[in-house]
Amino acid sequence: MNLLLSRRNVLKKTFALSALSVTGVAGLAVPSVSFAASLTKDERDKMTPDAVIEHFRQGNLRFRENRPLKHDYLAQKRSSASGQFPAAVILSCIDSRAPAEIVLDTGIGETFNSRVAGNISNSDIIGSMEFACAVAGAKLVLVMGHTACGAVKGAIDNAELGNLTGLLEKIKPAIDKTDYAGERSASNYDFVDAVARQNVVLTVENIRQNSPVLKALEQEKKIKIVGSMYHLVGGNVEFFDV
Ligand SMILES: [Zn+2]
Predict the structure, then answer these.
(1) 153 C-alpha vs ligand 1 centroid, how far in Å?
(2) Whole-angstrom distance, CA of residue 130 vs CA of residue 75
(3) Over the range 108-126, which residues count as b (16 or more CB within 10 Å of their CB) and which as e?
(4) What pLDDT was estimated at residue 134?
């Protein structure tokens, strides 16, 4: 991708030394590329929504192949302190095993993040997304579910606990809408994952229905609202249109 290539070229000189730390036999060595600074407005504005998705695909591939960028977080902190130009807003689950920024290999200033059990949306989260896209210029709304989601299992089991009960109610429409012929229980992970995926679909639809602001931006092709599933086994982030 042009953005990545241009950033790599710019950074090549600065981080020539870090490349020396790369180990391995010639041909097997993994290039050590650093993101010295956070996304600039120009870099972000040049990206299309599809380019942002591809950017994340590449980041997830680096994560899975254990060759993440050598992020200079202090430099990213410094360069973003006076202004931020994130490319996307992500809605994902609070699950400790599914940290979007890590599994997509992104740095400081690159993504807005909203996390809630079961990655459901509400007016506060949608308002945050509207800020991210309509005010701050993000190009992508990414809803990320994940496999073996405890919130989805809790919804299937009709778990009740304080405020969690109401949250799980928001996942339940996905259970009813999941077309699944096998055992429909929380102990069947295949079913749990099918519900989690359906829950992502419904969340994307809910965002469109409840945000004329985001829907209009999408119709104008200024942003995309897409779904994804992070697979705990294997580490793949699977992107899909809704
Ligand atoms: Zn979860």
Answers:
(1) 9
(2) 28
(3) bbbbbbbbbbbbbbeeebb
(4) 98
Whole-angstrom distance, CA of residue 209 vs CA of residue 225: 12
Query: In terms of C-beta density within 10 A (0-12 exposed, 13-18 middle, 19 or more buried), how is residue 138 classed?
Result: buried
Residues with Cβ–ion distance below 5 A, ligand 1: 93, 95, 149, 151
In terms of pTM, does the model score above 0.70? yes
Six-digit token string for 155: 């919804």
Q: What is the mean pLDDT of the chain?
A: 89
Q: How far is the CA of 199 from the centre of ligand 1 (A)?
A: 11
Tokens of 1: 């991708």
Helix boundaries (H) for the chain? 2-14, 16-20, 41-46, 49-64, 73-80, 100-103, 123-130, 150-156, 164-169, 172-177, 189-210, 212-219
Please count the other Cβ atoms lying within 10 Å of the Cβ belonging to residue 190: 10
Q: How many residues does the chain have?
A: 242
Q: Give 95-128 pLDDT, tens digit per residue.
A: 999 999 999 999 999 999 999 999 999 999 999 9
- The predicted-structure confidence for 143-198, as pLDDT tens digits, reads as follows 999 999 999 999 999 999 999 999 999 999 999 999 999 999 999 999 999 999 99
CATH number of the domain to which 91 belongs = 3.40.1050.10
Q: How many domains does the chain fold into?
A: 1
CA–centroid distance, residue 61 to ligand 1 (Å) = 22
Domain hosting 33: range is: 2-240
